[in-house]
Write a sequence for this structure.
């Protein structure tokens, strides 16, 4: 592309708070543009100010509605908010079926709000790396709070919320028999539980079940974070102020207890591992015409097991990891 | 442990079809026992006979009930079936809350059926590697069909079903507004769609919506697989024979079209990448007292970005990858 603005130049603009530069760099990050790497490394130095909140829960739990309401609360409290929403990819539509996103429309004209919906990638690649790069961009761009919303629950999604300071798990009453956080295996990662649709009569049962579960896991001692259960209702517009207060309280707890140090280490570890995984995947794919194909053939023919092939490829990889990667 | 039977010896017994040996090796695989590695490499040579079916869908879609019914169909057709069910981990319970598993109880006394429920690992590690090792064990142990059921939908779960010959996506009517396969981003990975709970009046809407979606994505041409939509009802005991027939038809299609070659390559690639990712994670964790901690500290202090740290660690890793890993 002729006269394309460099990612380095865009990074400068991000630091000055230009949201359009943020949007453009997210696009480059998503497309796997190699030129963006150095700019992201540079921008990383300007991160670490924003409070990052991961919001997760099973499909249908009401996460997008909750995010919209939470953003409004933050705005009312005078803070700016960036949102990274990770949407399912679909070969049929880039977004037309994503009705949830449309409900966020009321927020798009507010310059103190930036919402970016990212596609999950259909290929054998994680969604964590580009999503967390987007969080960095919003952080470096000066947003006070960054919300990451993940649709669905799985390992990669769990890893994404592991890269947040505060994790909110959203449960809706009556979705299946059991508490969804249990079914989805994310009960233990919650710093805060939300029971959405709390106007519904069956919400009390969900709230009580969650509280009972949390009681069982309660560690004794002073200064331990007690995971709260916050009921919210978008019908009645209740609970979102309480949710924001709970997030603020958790942020305060992290600082005062000193837990923030271990949390930051955990976030760094998650990010480094996710990047390393992506480098490995890319490396394997890049050699696809030669050694990789040879090894894959051996694996399909049962002459070599997957572990043996992985070790061989990792050993060969060392020569091909470039700084530019 | 004194007089512990070696994994190599257990592998021999697996090949002779001893299910208890399969169970023991799965346990060793799950615990990350390094001694099991060589045995799995050896056993891998005896795999490749079973037809592997991935079954996925959002929590509450009715996957476990469907698996139970499908197993009964396979048994009635004279085939043996292994099941690997990937359950959420919970700090509270190893399985007491997993009511779904109990419903499978009627099958446990049948020697032609082996069901193993595997915990997702709570740590920064994938669940794909141990789950796919379990599939190998069942394959090598002589089971005709191996079903992998994944709870929840996410990248790692998608990767698991990518390691199957046939992928079945289960949709329940009325779980949220949209078709769950779309919300969860797995519409495109389905070889077969199931609409469960088809006795419910709203199931027709889900079936029609799915069919309309599939029509839109239809590629023209002869010999292209047409993704069927199979309604099932465990209430009325209908549809499970049709589902088995659809899976058999898909297996036949893979062979006749020659697509099986590419599918096998894809499975091998997924497996190799998953193992490589695990090796990288383990390697990073192993060095945790020295270089890794140093780099993580730099990352938290914004002196180094996650990408730079990952490249440094991957380069350092080359010396520490042992065959024994």
């Amino acid at each position: 592309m002729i006269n394309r603005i460099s990612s380095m130049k865009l990074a400068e603009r991000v630091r000055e708070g230009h949201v359009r530069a943020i949007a453009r760099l997210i696009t480059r990050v998503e497309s796997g543009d190699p030129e963006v790497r150095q700019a992201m490394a540079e921008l990383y130095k300007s991160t670490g100010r924003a409070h990052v909140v991961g919001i997760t829960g099973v499909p249908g739990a009401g996460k997008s509605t909750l995010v919209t309401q939470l953003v409004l609360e933050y705005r009312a409290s005078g803070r700016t908010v960036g949102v990274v929403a990770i949407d399912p990819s679909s070969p049929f539509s880039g977004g037309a079926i994503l009705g949830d996103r449309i409900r966020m429309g009321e927020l798009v004209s507010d310059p103190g709000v930036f919402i970016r919906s990212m596609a999950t990638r259909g290929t054998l690649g994680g969604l964590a790396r580009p999503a967390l790069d987007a969080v960095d961009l919003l952080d470096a761009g000066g947003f006070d709070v960054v919300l990451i919303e993940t649709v669905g629950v799985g390992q990669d999604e769990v890893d994404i919320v592991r890269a947040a300071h505060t994790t909110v798990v959203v449960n809706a009453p009556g979705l299946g028999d059991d508490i969804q956080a249990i079914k989805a295996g994310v009960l233990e990662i919650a710093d805060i539980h939300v029971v959405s649709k709390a106007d519904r009569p069956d919400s009390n049962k969900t709230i009580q079940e969650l509280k009972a579960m949390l009681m069982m896991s309660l560690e004794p001692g002073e200064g331990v974070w007690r995971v709260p259960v916050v009921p919210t209702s978008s019908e009645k517009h209740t609970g979102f102020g309480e949710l924001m207060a709970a997030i603020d309280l958790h942020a305060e707890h992290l600082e005062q207890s000193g837990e923030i140090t271990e949390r930051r280490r955990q976030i760094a570890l998650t990010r480094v591992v996710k990047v390393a995984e992506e480098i490995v995947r890319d490396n394997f794919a890049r050699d696809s015409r030669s050694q990789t194909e040879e090894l894959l053939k051996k694996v399909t023919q049962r002459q070599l097991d997957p572990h043996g092939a992985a070790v061989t490829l990792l050993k060969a990889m060392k020569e091909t990891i470039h700084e530019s990667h």
Chain B has two domains: 1-46, 49-257. The mean pLDDT of chain B is 82.
